[in-house]
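Example record used in the benchmark description.
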Amino acid sequence: MSREPADLTGLQQAFPYPRSTSGATTDLARLLIQDIKKNGPIPFSDYMARCLYHPDLGYYSRPQPKTVSKMGDFMTSVSVGPVFGSLLARRLHRFWLANGSPSSFTLLELGAHDGSLACDILDHSKTLDPAFASSLSYVISEPLIARQNVLRSRLQDRATLISSPSETNDEFGAIIANEVLDALPVPLFLCSQNQWHEVMVTAANSTLEWSSRPASPDLPSNYPDGYVTEGSPDFKSLVSPLARAFRNSLFIWVDYGLDQESLYHPARTAGTIRCYRNHRSNAHPLDHPGEQDITADVNFTAMEEAARTCGLQVHPSINQGRYLTYCAKDWLLDGPSPHEISQLQTLIHPSQFGNRFHCLELTNGQVERTFP
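Model output (structure tokens):
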């Protein structure tokens, strides 16, 4: 493997956003710089993990301000309004009915953020079918203490909080994760001089900067010089404990992403890493650590392969527009309000959430999926 230093021009082209000139340094940036000066550069995946999940200073550890809202950093299907949760409740209800309407049905949500989706699902379940609502036990897996406190304050006794999905081991249930996969830390790679290099984060004086080291990712080598892309996160480590949470279950993953062929297309020279701050995506990844979201498109092909490795049945992902349209068939007959129809249109419209987001279902054990 070549030991020649990589030409970092590709990184400058992938992230052309101007660096912050305010002179402000976040508390997390100071910790990162101190650690790097002591122990050396860190992989981008480690940097991303600390920026998002540092227990005190990470982006998702902040109890406020609101990060998901019209006034926050970005919008999600949940923040469009309660219709998204209502339609997922109907999907879960159909699954529950098809499998005998058991008296105990545990719903495990990953990454519940502020609890809005939980409230929407629980509220709609009551009006949809009291027997279904009575059977439903809502459980949220959240490892961050600060986020647990936010959820506990909002949900009170409506949900049970656990730190890890390994704390769940029930007969029948479902797992739902909305925009969780896109926030998993990913390695970043740069093709330079016909060699792959892993992107590292180093420190120069009091500023975070790019660096690299030779690498051998499982990627083709016929990419143009300066090609930047991310690798897949460790999906198997995420899915494996979830596969043991229930003996019979349905998984619903909702996220933005691509199949592997599209993700690594030669024309996609800058990868999909991006940052969100105040509804703007033109923020540099090395600026404002802990105060901006860092995300990457989901490699649904790799996710499906990891699920199969864990013994789950994979039902290939479809775009959110098609998925929610199916879930809304009976709901539309109930005469939703114009405001609710407007929410549905936003969720399924190709230029908004409909094509960008995909829904992936997995099943475990002997269950009736009841989906075309």
